[in-house]
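Changelog entry: the FRG domain-containing protein record was regenerated in this release. Current contents:
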Amino acid sequence: MRAVTVWSWRELDDAIGDAGRSHGFHAHSTLVFRGLARSGYSHTSGLARLQGDYAGVEAHLIRNFRKYAHRQAPGPTLWDWLALGQHHGLPTRLLDWTFSPFVALHFATASWPEDDGLLLAVDSAGTHRLLPEPLRASLREERALLFTTEMLAVTAPDLHAFDRLGAGLPPFLAFFEPPSLDERVVNQSSVLSALSSATYQLEEWLGEHQDLALSWVIPAGVKAEIRQRLDQANITERMLMPGLDGLADWLRRYYSPGSIAYGDATGGASMADQDKPAPPDNG
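Regenerated structure tokens:
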């Protein structure tokens, strides 16, 4: 999949707007977004990063997570448990997305100031037109763009049933909205994706469906400008990850020498020889 390099905030903002208008669902864009801090990173699931026989341990991970997370009850379906596990770092086949390009840009620009970042967009409506009929019927019946965990569970109560829906067909990709587990999920406009095979990765799917995806490379020299715009709009760790962890991450980034939060166009510190001012108090 070819990625377009952008050279300014305005160019990127215009490109995102044009892309959204060309993928409309009634009055809304059907695009979902992912941001990578390094363009060389791959869209590999946490489960696959385990390597070895990772597909063989998928069920064991989920079963034991449910067994030992006895104080947490996210919802009645396996998909609720998968969302909770992904939210807390359990290796799953799921990938994180967002409806907001600016949230995705936060994750593309908050770290690695010396490296190019990447913003990826996928047309969820076009993707769902490739689903097996039982899943497409569920979306039609609910007049929905994305699945909920309950909708998925009706057709596919577990991952084996989900995978079997694609028997004899190419692997498919489904997007669903996680339950509102906490403010982080809500503030990030979170979306999750699941592929119908634990061993099939998004990189492969993108290579086979290039008409449904767009990507933009954000050169290292442009990251600082985009980061400044996002910080001015309060798209920061403090807002996206409410609580002390997000606050600490925000302050760590702001006060780190050479941080992309406070630097020149190349991400280098422009006030390295003096104390930085206090971060802005946005109330």
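The chain has a mean pLDDT of 88.
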